[in-house]
Amino acid sequence: ISDETSESAFNKWLLGHIPDIYFSVLHHWPLQDGIASVSRMTLSNQELWPTPHTVHCDKLSEMIVVMTLEKLGNENRLICLNSSGRRIKPKDAIYIDGYMAAGANVRNALELLEPPGLVCSPRIFKESTIRKADRVYVRDTIAASSLQVIDQFKKGKITMEMIYSIIHYLIDGDDAEVELAGLPLLPLADGDLQCFKSYNVSSNGHDMPYICWAGSATMLHPDYELFSPCHFVHPSISTYYSTALYGRNLNVDTLKDETISKLVRKRIAPGDSRTLVQKDAAWVLSFWDLFDQFHSPSEIHEGLMDLPLVPSSSEHRFMSLRKIQK
After folding, report:
1. Is 39 exposed, middle or buried (0-12, 13-18, 19+ CB in 10 A)?
2. What is the pTM assigned to this prediction?
3. Is pLDDT above 60 for 276?
């Protein structure tokens, strides 16, 4: 065999093994205390990875890059850094960045949760065979990290904008929608964060969904609180929730007359005639002051008829609408 033929055969062999040699170099990249050293270039640095645009004019290099990216998703060596800085196999990695459909807010929220397979850089991974984060992955990660999500929200690290972005991403895609029940993505007006739950009137008749209401702020103002904020979705995203989630059999709904009656009954006990304490009497008068702002044009709901809500000539004495009609 001639030297020229041998050299050609070797070059062909070498060309096919360049990705494996490259992966081996990355696998042995220096570590410090088990974590890639921040004082050195880490495995997440773009400079360590090929980029198609830098070799666009070189067909051979471009071929090698494509070959490398195609093999990356099945690689078993520890050459990726997850969101907590630990080395993982590309085979176990899930990639997401702020330029994908999920957006930066979703990526940032997932980074705070530090799921073991999450990889956010370098951006070249988007062109590789590494698995990409999708709606099912985001939903499953949020569901498995419910306590972390609530904790990060209370600390202010997961923001209202992130919550909004996650919901928007999960339900506004072209592919099949994912189930929202069980996800802690329901911020309330009192600052709490609750889980979405399956809800329908027939099976939850005595319970009450959280209320989407973008009306008068006086209803929730601390100095003039008509209804407790714990029953209301946070006003900054209430409008979006009411339009995007209505009709999905979840525990959120618009403010309806039936809901109003349930809220009132939490404060005022039924009775045809009763003397109310000063605080309750003042509350009833405030209720009527704001009644036109949230009540529908229809007749007063039957749930209000047996409550002492009509002031009489006697101080603090109230009668029910039913008694007056009789």
Report:
1. exposed
2. 0.83
3. yes
